[in-house]
Amino acid sequence: MNHSLKVKIEEVTGCIHKTNVLDEQGWTSEVRRVYTGDRSYLLKSSYKGKYRTWLKEEAQVLKKLTGNTVISVPEYYGLIEEKDGDHLIMSFEDGMSLTAALSKAASETERKSLIRSFGRFLHEFHDQEPIDFFRSEGDWLEGQLLKAQHYAENGQCDGSLTLLENLKTDRPSPVKQTIIHGDCTTDNVMVIDGVVQLFIDVAGMTVGDPRYDESLAIRKFMNNTEYVTAFYDGYTRYKVTKKEFQYFDEGLYEFF
Ligand SMILES: Nc1ncnc2c1ncn2[C@@H]1O[C@H](COP(=O)(O)OP(=O)(O)O)[C@@H](O)[C@H]1O
Ligand SMILES: [Mg+2]
């Protein structure tokens, strides 16, 4: 880490004793644990085009959620925007992603229990009344299709313009919008003390279609009936159809 960045971080955290690059990295960023005298922080840095935009959106979400007690996310401490990259400082949370927890789990019973807790956590989240900050942002799917178009036209995603046309003409019939995470894979929820209890990577958190979260939540274990059943033991509000799952997971998600 260069000296000027270190100084800017220390303005937020106080004197840094050491930093560690985490074993578990994401897809769009570099994550480090920053230790000060009495605690530690998570430093998330992004260096490329759309990932920098997402990092800034994540900072906005975390900042607006400061002090809220209903949505479980890390605490926001600061955003440092530099020429070559942006750096988000948040609380370090002692846990691991659900993806990591599932691969470390010692038994099928433990894996199912983790997945059930994920279902329950997402159920409670979707059941909340949208808080003021997330209200009135227009039609979520319309907005996502516009973003998808931009990424596809600029070669910034896997999805093709042909797929996009299909998604535009064949939309699923609307359901009640809820608060959503917006990238709700097993990578982006954290397990603490054996249960899923924290969202991370929250750039896409807004009011939108809960079926998107649900589809991304189950995509990793879609072909394991017992795991899917465990998820729906916890998530009882709705079950996506195969067609809805495909629209969101094999369709829309290709653009993000
Ligand atoms: N607040 C946090 N506290 C502790 N670890 C975190 C925190 N945020 C992220 N991580 C770790 O960093 C990894 C990548 O974070 P994530 O925000 O998902 O990055 P990306 O956007 O690159 O996918 C996560 O899997 C998790 O292990
Ligand atoms: Mg992530």
From TrEMBL:
This enzyme's EC code(s):
2.7.1.-
Report the top EC class in one word: transferase
Domain of life of the native organism: Bacteria
Every copy of the Aminoglycoside phosphotransferase domain together lies at 24-234
Report the Gene3D superfamilies cross-referenced here: 3.90.1200.10, Phosphorylase Kinase, domain 1
Q: Which UniProt keywords apply?
A: Transferase
Q: Which chain positions lie within coiled-coil regions?
A: none
Question: Could you tell me which Pfam families the record lists for this protein?
Answer: APH
| Organism field | Rossellomorea oryzaecorticis
GO MF term list: transferase activity
State the InterPro entries in the record: AGP_Transferase, Aminoglycoside_PTrfase, Kinase-like_dom_sf
Does the entry feature the keyword Membrane, yes or no? no
The name this protein goes by in its record: Aminoglycoside phosphotransferase family protein
